[in-house]
Design goal:
299 residues; Cytochrome Bc1 Complex, Chain D, domain 2; two-stranded antiparallel sheet; two-stranded antiparallel ribbon; elongated
Length: 299
């Protein structure tokens, strides 16, 4: 026997003891106070004390009231025996909260799966115009995606805004389904060591210039470094590459922030982002409906 087994056994015994003491204590108290002995104080006579002008008489509880208390105690014993109420005993019915949850989920799936199957026959673009489907997709989004992208789907630092028209991997219906099904894993390598402090500032200045701004570095020198070390992913014009998930640097939409200090930080340390796959959590039909909601946000 391990220490954990001993502790669990002791705790279970303690719980059972406390429950029994309470139930039997209530039963004894009801029996003991049900009626005063007739030879001491007769029914209806004073018990010999009063408070604030109110005198207590020997009036026992009505039988129906007393029997109701007995019934509740008997019900407690029956309930605790049928359900898991005596420590870790499983109860005669074998009920568990997990089993109840699984039953409810099964009922819901039997009820709604047919509806999702019908939705799956309709293109995502068409479903995005169906208000009822969009509401269903919104609930799926709230349960699975809002923790990162926010309840309004407008994202956060490191988590893309899904309500605009700026997509890392593409915003077509097929791409959204692909992203939800397989997830995404993006990585920008750290370039600070290769560029050096001045080189990093120069590249940051050039990146800022792509969206009409200026930085402290030499943008012209940064353009040369950009062509050598960044253009393979972001493209020679900085407009990105959706095949790789490389963002467009010319539209002033930033995943981690677009001020000069943050851009320098990104170049120096790199970035890593991962969106999980939902194919093990959601059926293809539910992913289809969720994709319709996401598609509707920017279309």
């Amino acid at each position: 026997m391990t220490g954990t087994d001993f502790t669990q056994g002791w705790v279970n015994g303690w719980i059972i003891t406390i429950v029994l003491i309470n139930l039997l204590g209530c039963l004894w108290l009801l029996w003991w106070t049900r009626k005063r002995p007739e030879d001491t104080i007769k029914e209806g006579e004073s018990l010999g004390h009063s408070f604030d002008g109110i005198e207590e008489l020997n009036n026992p509880l009505p039988h129906w009231w007393l029997n109701l208390f007995y019934f509740t105690i008997a019900f407690a014993f029956i309930y605790l025996t049928l359900y898991p109420g005596w420590g870790d005993a499983k109860g005669i019915l074998g009920w568990t909260s997990v089993g109840q949850w699984e039953t409810e989920v099964e009922k819901a799936e039997n009820r709604y799966d047919r509806l999702f199957e019908e939705y799956a026959q309709v293109p995502v673009e068409q479903l995005a115009g169906n208000e009822e489907v969009v509401k269903t997709g919104q609930r799926l989004f709230g349960n699975n995606c809002a923790i990162c992208h926010g309840s309004d789907a407008r994202g956060n630092v490191g988590y893309p805004n899904l309500a605009d028209d700026d997509w890392l991997y593409g915003g077509s219906a097929a791409k959204i389904v692909e992203t939800l099904t397989n997830g995404r894993s993006g990585m920008m390598p750290p370039l600070g060591a290769a560029l050096g402090e001045d080189g990093t500032k120069n590249v940051a200045a050039y990146v800022l210039s792509l969206s009409g701004r200026s930085g402290a570095g030499d943008a012209a020198a940064g353009k040369e470094k950009f062509a050598m070390m960044c253009a393979a992913c972001h493209g020679p014009d900085g407009k990105g590459n959706q095949m790789l998930g490389a963002p467009n640097l010319t539209d002033d939409v930033w995943l981690y922030g677009g001020n000069e200090a943050t851009i320098i930080e990104t170049i120096n340390a790199g970035r890593q982002g991962k969106m999980p796959s939902f194919k093990d959590q959601l059926s293809p039909e539910k992913i289809h409906v969720l994709a319709a909601y996401v598609y509707s946000l920017s279309n």
